Amino acid sequence: MRLTVFGATGGIGKEIVTQALAAGHDVTAVVRDPARFAVTGTGLGTGLTVFRADLTDPVPLREAISGRDAVLSGLGARKRSDAGITTRLTQAVLGAMEAEGTRRLVVVSAAPVGPEAPGDGLLDRGMRSMISAILKDVYADLRAMEAALAASATDWTSVRPPKLTDKPLTGVYRRVVGGTPRAARTIARADVAHAMLACLDDPATVKQGVGVAY
Predict the structure, then answer these.
(1) Is the pLDDT of residue 92 over 70?
(2) Which fold has domain 2-213?
């Protein structure tokens, strides 16, 4: 597939690019600063295009999206003070996609944005409530982003992980379409990227939130 990846310098974005290239996809990695972007591994440079762009304006983004089969986004706030940025940047991506007629979009969100898992115990409910209170502005931003997705003409999927780690790719995790896995506590960024790529060809995930966790 011909893929465009936004947020390619972030932890999940780099994993998406690396895994997509390893799978033989043609990848355009959209970055603000190419000096911050690097992928490693034998043969991973094949099929890679690095596209420099300011993500706030949909007009120049159209070139990065034109003719692509799908778009994946690892965009997100890196600290609490960045709250609001995810919605703004995603709206620019949506504008470019709609202008180019590109429909398939997979983004990363967060588990607290999705529904509470049936059967979660007191500990998990308490942790979810505490984290949601601490990061309320970040999660409000993600909810606004998901509202923008729902209002768009794209065939979107929002992948919602819990706490992220930097552990290696396993390819083994739980996934709930339209819900949240019970006792969802952690997952590696590499496995979130794996889940996002797996959603591309799965029609059951279109216009759905997808909870993932170990």
Answers:
(1) yes
(2) Rossmann fold (3.40.50)
